[in-house]
Structure to design on (180 residues):
């Protein structure tokens, strides 16, 4: 996120908004079952940051909305599992569909104070809002029999709210060095 002490050096009041971004990723787990790879796809459009600072001289007040995590995962897999002992016996087919939406929002105020031209302190308090929903469907056809499928379905909704506090200190002994 950011060191709230750095806000003390803002030279004027302002509003900052980062543009929404598109995140697309693929995770590949190699050789999970025999030589078969599992692939997980994730994509999301996320507004990652909105913030404003109000300048009161040496004191700065701010409010931020941060989205550090936003994922929409979709995984569709169809696998044939062969018996290690007898490649023609006890084979199983597994079909899996896994979908997940996972978001974390952080909202809250910050305050910073410029103690001197080279030293400032600051703090932020964020309300954390996490929302996660996932569905995992698995079908298995043991021994590849036409009419004998087993279906497992798992569904979960999770939400969590909490508070995170951040304290910051920034020391700038010269123009080329800043310690936070």
């Amino acid at each position: 996120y950011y060191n709230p002490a750095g806000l003390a050096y803002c030279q004027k009041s302002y509003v900052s908004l980062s543009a929404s971004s598109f995140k697309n990723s693929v995770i590949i787990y190699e050789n999970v079952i025999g030589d078969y790879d599992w692939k997980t796809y994730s994509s999301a459009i996320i507004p990652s940051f909105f913030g404003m600072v109000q300048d009161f001289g040496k004191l700065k007040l701010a409010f931020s909305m941060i989205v550090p995590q936003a994922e929409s995962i979709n995984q569709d897999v169809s696998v044939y599992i062969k018996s290690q002992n007898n490649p023609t016996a006890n084979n199983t087919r597994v079909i899996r569909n896994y979908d997940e939406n996972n978001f974390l929002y952080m909202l809250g105020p910050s305050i910073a104070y410029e103690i001197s031209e080279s030293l400032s302190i600051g703090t932020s308090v964020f309300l954390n809002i996490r929302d996660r929903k996932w569905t995992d469907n698995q079908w298995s056809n043991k021994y590849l029999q036409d009419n004998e499928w087993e279906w497992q379905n798992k569904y979960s909704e999770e939400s969590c709210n909490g508070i995170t506090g951040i304290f910051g200190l920034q020391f700038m002994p010269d123009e080329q060095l800043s310690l936070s």
The mean pLDDT is 85. The chain is about 0% helix and 75% strand. The longest strand covers residues 92-116.
